[in-house]
Amino acid sequence: MKKPLQLFFTFFKIGAFTLGGGYAMLSMVEKAVVDQKKWIPNDEFWDMIAVVQSLPGVFAVNTALYVGHRVAGRSGAFAAMLGAIIPSITIILLLATVFREYRDQPVVERIFKGIRPCVVALILAPSLRMIKSAKVTWKTAIIPIATVLLIWWCKISPAYVILAAIAGSLIYALIISRRETARLRGPEVPKSKRKGGRVMIYLQLLWVFVKIGVLGFGGGYAMLSLIQHEVVDHYAWMSTTDFADMVAISQMTPGPISINLATYVGYTTAGFGGSLLASFALCLPSVIMVYLILRLFMSKRNNALMDNTLKGLKPAIAGLIFAAGLSMMNLQNFPDFGRGQYNISVIICVLAFVASYFFKANPILLIVLSGIVGFFAY
After folding, report:
1. For residue 129, how many C-alpha atoms fall within 13 Å in the half-sphere facing its CB?
2. What pLDDT score was predicted for residue 180?
3. Can you tell me the mean pLDDT for 321-329?
4. Across 93-110, average pLDDT
5. Helices within 233-337 (DSSP H only)
6. How far apart are CA 169 and CA 234, in angstroms?
7. Quick one: pLDDT band at residue 184, thresholds 50, 70, 90?
8. DSSP codes joined into one string, 333-366
9. If 0-12 CB within 10 Å is exposed, 13-18 middle and 19+ buried, where does residue 105 land?
10. 302-324: per-residue pLDDT in tens?
11. What residues contact 3, with CB distance under 8 A and at least 6 apart?
């Protein structure tokens, strides 16, 4: 049991002190797993990150599961996963309890008026960075544009858009692979609201977050559009303003942002039991896929079919994130837009976007500064 306990405390410490989501934990995981504990060689670690990034689900959980299984088998995977998610679940539950108690206070409302437009900017910025990293060309630009229009303008469920993107990417990959094969071989001849009691709400939470875990390619930010569609548009468990506040709180707490979001939604919808159920449901697909698929991915990580599939999928994920940001551009989050001489909310959003996209400013710092501006401006 020595190795599983070491894994638990290692990932517990990482989960408790990592702000900014799953990708922010990479440097801490590398230092602990590769440099200090020497559990995994450096080359294998980065190969593992490339594979984990291509899987749906929670990036931080996928990473913890792989490292834990690699070091100490199933018990190690379970211990590492618990260590990674317990800090975020505990902290978000405490914050959610306090926030629900004091959210209607004038001071709190003024602070969040400054924070909400900043959250919109923090969602838009990573989507553009992802488009840049995916090396989108004029030919493939139609993918993120179509994704944004289908979700934001046509109000089509992000789940259907993701499935279509996966299918299209696979078809594209197969066509490219056949062309490569032909080139090598030479030329050949030719919306409802809450219904039922607590049990029904539990079942709805389980279904919603399992589905998000299965379709959530790209990590926490890519899941935002999926969560917003289900929580705000379909089940009407909260308003757009509540959702923006939830994203802000999730950004300000340690651990994976998607776990924070699931915990918060579950708690506000069905109490403590709902928070645990939503978090469990979100992590369940990651656990299953890591065990069933990760070994296959590791053996074929340089496969051309896999690379070409991701070329089509990544721009769609970027469009998914961008659509989530556009969906939050409304008068609830920008209350002074067009109503006065100074549009404070628009200025906050623009400055936060510039600081995040061009200077990669710490999102926690931007949220805190935006809250201060909101306190004095409103």
Report:
1. 17
2. 55
3. 78
4. 80
5. 240-252, 257-299, 304-327
6. 27
7. very low
8. TSTTTTSSS--HHHHHHHHHHHHHHTT---HHHH
9. exposed
10. 566 666 666 676 677 677 768 77
11. 71, 72, 76
- Say how far apart CA 306 and CA 79 lie, in whole Å: 30
Q: Hey, CA dihedral for 92, 96, 102, 108, is it positive or negative?
A: positive
Of 108, 144, 119, which Cα lies nearest the Cα of 316?
A: 144
CB atoms within 10 A of CB 163: 13
| Complete DSSP assignment for 101-134 | HHTTSHHHHHHHHHHHHHHHHHHHHHHHHHHHHT
Cα radius of gyration (the chain): 21
For all residues of the chain together, what is the average pLDDT? Answer: 78
In one letter, which amino acid is 269? T
Residue 254 DSSP label? S
Q: Give the Å distances, CA to CA, from 319 to 64, 127, 197, 232, 329.
A: 27, 7, 36, 19, 16
Tracing tokens 């230092």 back to the chain, one arrives at 31
Predicted TM-score (pTM) above 0.85: no
Highest mean pLDDT among 20-29, 273-282, 308-317: 273-282
pLDDT in tens, 186-231: 444 343 444 456 788 899 999 999 988 887 765 666 677 788 888 8
pLDDT recorded at residue 309: 66
Q: Cβ contacts of residue 78 below 8 Å, gap of 6+? A: 4, 68
Give the whole-angstrom CA distance, residue 306 versus residue 10: 32
- The first and second tokens of residue 7, run together, are 């894994």
Q: Are 309 and 173 in contact (CB under 8 A)?
A: yes
Write phi, then psi, for 341 (nearest 5 degrees): -70, -35
Q: Which residue has the tokens 């469009």?
A: 319
Q: What band does 247 get if pLDDT is binned at 50, 70 and 90?
A: confident
- 324 neighbors 122 (Cβ within 8 angstroms): no
Cα–Cα–Cα angle for 205, 245, 279, rounded to 5 degrees: 30
